[in-house]
Amino acid sequence: MTSGLALADTITLSGRNRTGTELILATKPFTVDDPVKSWWYILSTTALWLAVIAGTLWIPYLAAKLALSVLSGLLLLRLFVIYHDQQHNAILPNSKLAEWMMRGFGILALSPSSIWRSSHNHHHNHNSKIKGSHIGSFPIMTKEHYLKASKSARLIYLFMRHPLTILFGYLFVFLHGMCLRPFVMKPRQHLDCLLALLVHGGIAAALIYFFGWQMWLLVQVIPHFITYAIGSYLFYAQHNFPDVAFYDKAGWTYERAALDSSSYMKTSKLMAWFSANIGYHHIHHLNARIPFYRLPEVLKAMPELQKPKVTTLSPRDILRCLRLKVWDTELQRMVPLPSSTR
After folding, report:
1. What is the DSSP string of 312-334?
2. How far is CA 123 from the centre of its chain?
3. Which of 56, 71, 130, 158 is 20 to 30 A distant from 253 in Cα terms?
4. pLDDT tens for each residue of 134-168
5. CA 89 vs CA 19, 29, 92, 116: distances in Å
6. Alpha carbon distance 199, 205 (integer Å)
7. Which of 285, 290, 291 lies closest to 265 in space, CA to CA?
8. pLDDT for 12 beyond 60
9. What is the reported pLDDT for 70?
10. Percent of the chain whose predicted confidence (pLDDT) is above 90
11. For the segment 283-298, what is each residue's pLDDT rounded down to a tens digit?
């Protein structure tokens, strides 16, 4: 399905080509976790998040409450990516305490471990495949498949990739996609999804009862909206960008999927901190066992990873990514919808 040489096949070092296996082996020294550092990042971020929530509840000034509400959403985003790292066993892989703490956070963050691990591991193992990549990710149709699809199939496909669906990731991606739907489909396997919904509803009820609906909006709704709008877009754009490549079974390899189908999201240092370096996504997909705080180290140490496919959070790049709808097998790229079907 793809033509030409893939990036992963053309990387050279010391005058010779490096294979994908060699690349992965070269990242192995960076998979060593520093437990002290990992615990510091978990506990310090959690403490900041809880302090910000307390400030939102008790500081009397509305402008300060709104600012803290936004900050709470950004800190929740950082905690979510740290949780994502722990679920990959990239940090604290042998700590039962960390496992149970992160399982609890997954319930609070509407991403219970049972569905997150199964769907996200599937995503890593099937990233950039035309068939099978929809589980744990945004679906991909070829242009030919889309033109032949029924009207209802097209509507569902476009809804799942729609900018408003991404913007309202809190409702569509997490409350529904990560909690309600998995529980309804496989209730015994995903009891923690039901627990997540009950806990989330219980927190909402408690906030409204004790503090009023305004505090519910400021403490729960706005922060979660911000976290999951940004998180949903980051996840979308890191695999749906103008230079992305998709493969059939014959052309797919794990290394190609990492380097040709996962972007490097260039952000400010502040945004990199709030997103816990998830922008180094091509490296993360090459080896998901690398702790998030070591990803910049890998980029600096391995010249062959320093020319990734790049996107940013600029309005221009966001628009370019959101316009992409289907994979054109002739052009070998993602394209907007054909004008006749809009």
Report:
1. ESSHHHHHHHHT--EEETTTTEE
2. 10
3. 158
4. 566 789 999 999 999 999 999 999 999 999 999 99
5. 25, 15, 7, 13
6. 10
7. 285
8. no
9. 98
10. 77
11. 999 999 999 999 999 9
Q: Which amino acid is at 21?
A: T
SS3 letters across 181-250: HHHHHCCCCCHHHHHHHHHHHHHHHHHHHHHCHHHHHHHHHHHHHHHHHHHHHHHHHCCCCCCCCCECCC
Q: How confident is the model at residue 132 (pLDDT cuts 50, 70, 90)?
A: low
> Are 172 and 184 contacting, i.e. CB atoms less than 8 angstroms apart?
no
CA-CA-CA-CA dihedral for 31, 98, 47, 69, to nearest 10: 90
Residue 149 phi/psi, 5-degree rounding, is: -70, 155
- % of the chain exceeding 70 in pLDDT: 92
* Beta bridge pairs of residue 310: 264
The pair of three-digit structure tokens given for residue 196, joined into one six-digit string: 């997540």
d(CA 339, CA 60): 53
Region class of 248: left (phi > 0), else alpha (psi between -120 and 50), else beta:
beta
pTM tops 0.85:
yes
Return the residue matching tokens 């090459």.
286
